[in-house]
Amino acid sequence: MPYVPEPWSFDDVLKLTKISPAYWRATYNAPPLNLFTPRTYKALRTLVELLENDQAVKVVVFDSSVPDYFMAHYDLLAREGKENAEGEDAAPETEWPGFVLRFARLSAVTIAEVRGRARGLGSEFVLACDIRYASLEKAVFCQPEVGAGLVPGGGGIEWLSKLVGRSRALEILLGSQDFDAATAAQYGYINRAIKDSELSAFVDNFARRVAGFDKKPLLETKQVVNDRAGLPSLSDLTGALNIFAKSCNWPETTKRVQTLLGMGLQQDGPVERDLGQHVHEVSLKLYGKTEDAQ
To answer: Tens digit of pLDDT for each residue in 198-253?
Structure first.
């Protein structure tokens, strides 16, 4: 008797579908932007616990139900205590370094299927996945923190330095620009950029292929690659997160973030859709010309 896909949800912000015992899909579902909140983290943490305790699962694909956003970025208003009570017991701002290493060491293979924008922590989550495939026409990647007066704190510095090399990492991080999928693939930010009409089928075929292999060689191979290639260290990730937390309180950062919020950040509109351009425009608004920024 064929296996019947089992859709179920421990929280609507992250919907889980068990395509088979060995192959799961996790779908970010927090329209309109898929902002990452403490509630999102709580759901993701629950999923990781399920993955750690299920010996049958071999591969999990992460995608989005929101066409234009895989994950916009971290919810900046959550830092101001405006997150609902459901997320109060989840603390991504302190737990993330240890959690993301736990995620990277899962026995299951993690794959990001990216359509739409993946910026900030959205980009950093994608980077933490084992494999990244993206829509050639619709995927956008960005680490906008420096342009907003912040220091990236969710692993972007550490992952990008390993994946794309020093100079390209600096270009991505310091420029705070949007990268299309073709350029991201050329740089090594993602594995491949695939035509949007072919992306889902490609990822599904690859996931089913992996799910059909034996668990032990999958696990052992992943562990050896992690050891050889090297995961970011807990101390490096923690240090970057601490610097990010400090940067949130810099007066210049407050000005930039408030300006962006006033322009429409965290609303589905021109600023979020073209954030890589608008973080540059903040400098013009605040200082008249970019070289006057302190």
So the answer is: 999 999 999 999 999 999 999 999 999 999 999 999 999 999 999 999 999 999 99
Residue 225 forms part of a structural domain: no
Contact indicator for 84, 48 with CB cutoff of 8 Å? no
Q: According to the model, what pLDDT value does residue 86 have?
A: 47
Instruction: List the alpha helices (DSSP H) in 105-214.
Output: 121-128, 156-164, 166-175, 181-187, 196-211
Q: Looking at the domain assignment, is residue 223 inside a domain?
A: no
* Residue 171, domain extent: 6-217
- Asked if the structure places residue 190 within a domain, the reply is yes
CA 143 to chain centre: 10
* 174/61 Cα distance (integer angstroms): 30
Chain segment 47-93, per-residue pLDDT in tens: 999 999 999 999 999 999 999 999 999 999 886 654 444 445 667 77
Query: Nearest CA to 196 among 112, 116, 276?
Result: 116
Q: Is residue 282 part of a domain?
A: no
- Rounded CA gap, 8 and 60, in Å? 15
In angstroms, the CA 294 to CA 288 distance is: 12
Cα 166 from Cα 182, distance rounded (Å): 20
Total structural domains within the chain: 1
3-state secondary structure of 249: coil
**Is 0.85 surpassed by the pTM of this model?**
yes
